[in-house]
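Re: that backbone. C-alpha coordinates:
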Protein backbone atom coordinates (compact mmCIF):
# COMPACT_ATOMS: atom_id res chain seq x y z
CA UNK A 1 0.00 0.00 0.00
CA UNK A 2 1.10 3.58 -0.62
CA UNK A 3 1.35 5.73 2.52
CA UNK A 4 -1.24 3.69 4.46
CA UNK A 5 -3.93 4.28 1.83
CA UNK A 6 -5.81 1.80 -0.41
CA UNK A 7 -3.61 2.82 -3.36
CA UNK A 8 -1.55 -0.05 -4.71
CA UNK A 9 0.19 1.83 -7.51
CA UNK A 10 0.79 5.38 -8.71
CA UNK A 11 3.33 6.57 -11.28
CA UNK A 12 5.75 8.76 -9.29
CA UNK A 13 8.12 9.44 -12.18
CA UNK A 14 9.78 12.85 -11.64
CA UNK A 15 8.61 13.12 -8.03
CA UNK A 16 10.75 12.92 -4.89
CA UNK A 17 9.26 11.76 -1.60
CA UNK A 18 9.40 14.44 1.13
CA UNK A 19 7.44 12.55 3.79
CA UNK A 20 5.10 9.56 3.75
CA UNK A 21 2.37 10.29 1.23
CA UNK A 22 3.86 13.59 -0.02
CA UNK A 23 6.07 14.12 -3.06
CA UNK A 24 7.41 17.16 -4.97
CA UNK A 25 8.91 17.69 -8.41
CA UNK A 26 11.29 20.16 -10.03
CA UNK A 27 8.43 22.34 -11.32
CA UNK A 28 7.13 22.97 -7.80
CA UNK A 29 4.22 20.54 -7.86
CA UNK A 30 3.21 18.88 -4.60
CA UNK A 31 1.56 15.47 -4.92
CA UNK A 32 -0.15 13.86 -1.93
CA UNK A 33 -2.41 10.90 -1.21
CA UNK A 34 -4.86 10.61 1.68
CA UNK A 35 -7.27 8.11 3.19
CA UNK A 36 -10.16 9.28 5.39
CA UNK A 37 -12.01 6.60 7.44
CA UNK A 38 -15.08 8.84 7.65
CA UNK A 39 -18.31 9.29 5.76
CA UNK A 40 -17.31 11.57 2.83
CA UNK A 41 -18.22 15.23 3.30
CA UNK A 42 -19.26 15.69 -0.33
CA UNK A 43 -22.44 17.81 -0.58
CA UNK A 44 -24.23 15.46 -2.97
CA UNK A 45 -24.02 12.07 -4.61
CA UNK A 46 -21.89 11.63 -7.73
CA UNK A 47 -24.98 10.96 -9.87
CA UNK A 48 -26.22 14.50 -9.07
CA UNK A 49 -23.51 16.52 -10.87
CA UNK A 50 -25.28 19.90 -10.80
CA UNK A 51 -26.09 19.68 -7.09
CA UNK A 52 -22.61 18.35 -6.37
CA UNK A 53 -20.94 21.13 -8.34
CA UNK A 54 -23.06 23.83 -6.70
CA UNK A 55 -22.26 22.50 -3.24
CA UNK A 56 -18.54 22.26 -3.97
CA UNK A 57 -18.57 25.80 -5.39
CA UNK A 58 -20.13 27.10 -2.18
CA UNK A 59 -17.59 25.21 -0.07
CA UNK A 60 -14.67 26.64 -2.04
CA UNK A 61 -16.13 30.15 -1.84
CA UNK A 62 -16.68 29.80 1.89
CA UNK A 63 -12.96 29.07 2.27
CA UNK A 64 -12.11 32.20 0.26
CA UNK A 65 -11.29 30.34 -2.94
CA UNK A 66 -13.02 29.42 -6.16
CA UNK A 67 -14.09 26.18 -7.82
CA UNK A 68 -12.83 26.01 -11.41
CA UNK A 69 -14.15 22.56 -12.34
CA UNK A 70 -15.96 19.66 -10.70
CA UNK A 71 -16.56 16.65 -12.92
CA UNK A 72 -17.67 13.14 -11.97
CA UNK A 73 -15.60 10.33 -13.46
CA UNK A 74 -13.85 7.11 -12.48
CA UNK A 75 -10.43 6.20 -11.10
CA UNK A 76 -9.44 2.55 -11.58
CA UNK A 77 -13.09 1.88 -12.33
CA UNK A 78 -14.34 3.42 -9.07
CA UNK A 79 -16.75 6.40 -9.24
CA UNK A 80 -15.05 9.65 -8.22
CA UNK A 81 -15.17 13.41 -8.62
CA UNK A 82 -12.36 15.53 -10.05
CA UNK A 83 -11.96 19.07 -8.78
CA UNK A 84 -9.82 22.04 -9.73
CA UNK A 85 -9.82 24.78 -7.08
CA UNK A 86 -7.94 28.06 -6.68
CA UNK A 87 -7.13 29.59 -3.31
CA UNK A 88 -5.55 32.90 -2.28
CA UNK A 89 -2.06 32.51 -0.85
CA UNK A 90 -2.88 34.83 2.03
CA UNK A 91 0.67 35.59 3.12
CA UNK A 92 1.51 37.19 -0.23
CA UNK A 93 -0.17 38.09 -3.53
CA UNK A 94 -1.07 35.25 -5.84
CA UNK A 95 -2.99 32.02 -5.91
CA UNK A 96 -2.49 28.32 -5.32
CA UNK A 97 -4.17 25.80 -7.59
CA UNK A 98 -5.30 22.37 -6.39
CA UNK A 99 -6.39 19.47 -8.53
CA UNK A 100 -7.79 16.36 -6.92
CA UNK A 101 -9.70 13.15 -7.31
CA UNK A 102 -11.97 12.30 -4.40
CA UNK A 103 -12.91 8.62 -4.51
CA UNK A 104 -15.77 8.17 -2.02
CA UNK A 105 -17.17 4.95 -0.63
CA UNK A 106 -20.03 4.66 1.85
CA UNK A 107 -17.94 5.21 4.97
CA UNK A 108 -14.54 6.35 3.73
CA UNK A 109 -12.73 8.09 0.89
CA UNK A 110 -9.36 8.27 -0.81
CA UNK A 111 -8.00 11.51 -2.24
CA UNK A 112 -5.20 12.05 -4.74
CA UNK A 113 -4.19 15.71 -4.82
CA UNK A 114 -1.77 17.83 -6.86
CA UNK A 115 -1.11 21.48 -6.06
CA UNK A 116 1.15 24.34 -7.07
CA UNK A 117 1.38 28.05 -6.27
CA UNK A 118 2.24 31.14 -8.25
CA UNK A 119 5.72 32.55 -7.75
CA UNK A 120 6.86 36.14 -7.51
CA UNK A 121 5.14 37.07 -10.78
CA UNK A 122 1.36 36.82 -10.55
CA UNK A 123 -1.65 37.71 -12.67
CA UNK A 124 0.00 37.52 -16.10
CA UNK A 125 -2.33 34.79 -17.38
CA UNK A 126 -5.42 36.64 -16.18
CA UNK A 127 -4.29 40.02 -17.58
CA UNK A 128 -3.37 38.54 -20.95
CA UNK A 129 -6.64 36.65 -21.37
CA UNK A 130 -8.69 39.66 -20.27
CA UNK A 131 -6.89 41.86 -22.79
CA UNK A 132 -7.77 39.37 -25.53
CA UNK A 133 -11.44 38.68 -24.72
CA UNK A 134 -12.32 42.02 -23.11
CA UNK A 135 -13.56 42.73 -19.57
CA UNK A 136 -17.22 42.17 -20.46
CA UNK A 137 -16.57 38.60 -21.63
CA UNK A 138 -13.93 37.77 -19.03
CA UNK A 139 -16.06 37.30 -15.90
CA UNK A 140 -18.93 34.85 -16.21
CA UNK A 141 -21.60 33.37 -13.93
CA UNK A 142 -20.39 30.22 -12.27
CA UNK A 143 -21.66 27.22 -14.28
CA UNK A 144 -22.77 25.38 -11.14
CA UNK A 145 -24.47 28.21 -9.26
CA UNK A 146 -25.62 30.59 -11.99
CA UNK A 147 -23.90 33.53 -10.30
CA UNK A 148 -20.72 34.43 -8.43
CA UNK A 149 -20.90 32.47 -5.15
CA UNK A 150 -18.24 34.59 -3.45
CA UNK A 151 -14.59 33.89 -2.83
CA UNK A 152 -12.34 34.18 -5.88
CA UNK A 153 -14.34 35.05 -9.02
CA UNK A 154 -15.10 32.62 -11.81
CA UNK A 155 -13.58 33.74 -15.14
CA UNK A 156 -12.50 32.41 -18.53
CA UNK A 157 -8.79 32.85 -17.77
CA UNK A 158 -8.86 29.52 -15.93
CA UNK A 159 -10.25 27.62 -18.94
CA UNK A 160 -8.20 24.72 -20.26
CA UNK A 161 -8.05 26.31 -23.73
CA UNK A 162 -5.43 28.78 -22.44
CA UNK A 163 -3.10 26.17 -20.94
CA UNK A 164 -1.00 25.75 -24.10
CA UNK A 165 -0.34 29.48 -24.12
CA UNK A 166 0.86 29.41 -20.50
CA UNK A 167 2.72 26.08 -20.20
CA UNK A 168 4.54 27.04 -16.99
CA UNK A 169 1.53 28.45 -15.14
CA UNK A 170 0.70 26.46 -11.97
CA UNK A 171 -2.86 25.80 -13.14
CA UNK A 172 -1.53 24.33 -16.40
CA UNK A 173 0.96 22.18 -14.50
CA UNK A 174 -1.63 20.93 -12.01
CA UNK A 175 -4.18 20.11 -14.70
CA UNK A 176 -1.60 18.25 -16.82
CA UNK A 177 -0.17 16.32 -13.86
CA UNK A 178 -3.59 15.14 -12.73
CA UNK A 179 -4.39 14.02 -16.28
CA UNK A 180 -1.13 12.07 -16.49
CA UNK A 181 -1.41 10.47 -13.05
CA UNK A 182 -5.05 9.36 -13.21
CA UNK A 183 -4.59 6.29 -15.46
CA UNK A 184 -1.73 5.05 -13.24
CA UNK A 185 -3.79 4.88 -10.02
CA UNK A 186 -4.90 1.45 -8.84
CA UNK A 187 -6.70 0.49 -5.64
CA UNK A 188 -6.74 -2.59 -3.46
CA UNK A 189 -9.69 -4.78 -4.40
CA UNK A 190 -11.04 -4.56 -0.83
CA UNK A 191 -11.45 -0.79 -1.16
CA UNK A 192 -13.12 -1.19 -4.54
CA UNK A 193 -15.54 -3.71 -3.05
CA UNK A 194 -16.78 -1.37 -0.30
CA UNK A 195 -20.40 -0.14 -0.59
CA UNK A 196 -20.76 2.92 -2.83
CA UNK A 197 -21.30 6.47 -1.62
CA UNK A 198 -25.00 7.31 -1.91
CA UNK A 199 -24.79 10.94 -0.83
CA UNK A 200 -24.82 12.76 2.51
CA UNK A 201 -28.51 12.05 3.13
CA UNK A 202 -27.96 8.29 3.20
CA UNK A 203 -24.79 7.58 5.21
CA UNK A 204 -23.71 3.97 5.53
CA UNK A 205 -21.98 2.23 8.47
CA UNK A 206 -18.24 2.68 8.66
CA UNK A 207 -16.33 -0.40 7.43
CA UNK A 208 -14.00 -2.17 9.86
CA UNK A 209 -10.50 -0.67 9.71
CA UNK A 210 -7.31 -2.23 11.02
CA UNK A 211 -5.19 -0.41 13.64
CA UNK A 212 -3.56 2.78 12.26
CA UNK A 213 -0.02 1.53 12.81
CA UNK A 214 -0.69 -1.26 10.32
CA UNK A 215 -1.80 1.07 7.54
CA UNK A 216 -5.13 0.78 5.76
CA UNK A 217 -4.74 -2.95 5.22
CA UNK A 218 -2.47 -5.45 6.91
CA UNK A 219 0.42 -6.49 4.72
CA UNK A 220 0.77 -10.16 3.94
CA UNK A 221 2.74 -11.86 6.65
CA UNK A 222 2.31 -8.88 9.03
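Recovered sequence:
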Amino acid sequence: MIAKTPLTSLDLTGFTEREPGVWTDAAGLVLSVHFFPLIPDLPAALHEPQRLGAGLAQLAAGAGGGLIEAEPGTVDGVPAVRQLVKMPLGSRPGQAFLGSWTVPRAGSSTVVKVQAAEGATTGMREASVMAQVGPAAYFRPHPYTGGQPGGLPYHVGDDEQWDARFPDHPLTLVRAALLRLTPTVTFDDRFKALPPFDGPAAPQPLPHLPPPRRGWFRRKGA
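Confidence is low (pLDDT under 50) at residues 202-222. The domain at 7-194 is CATH 3.40.1000 (Protein Transport Mog1p; Chain A).
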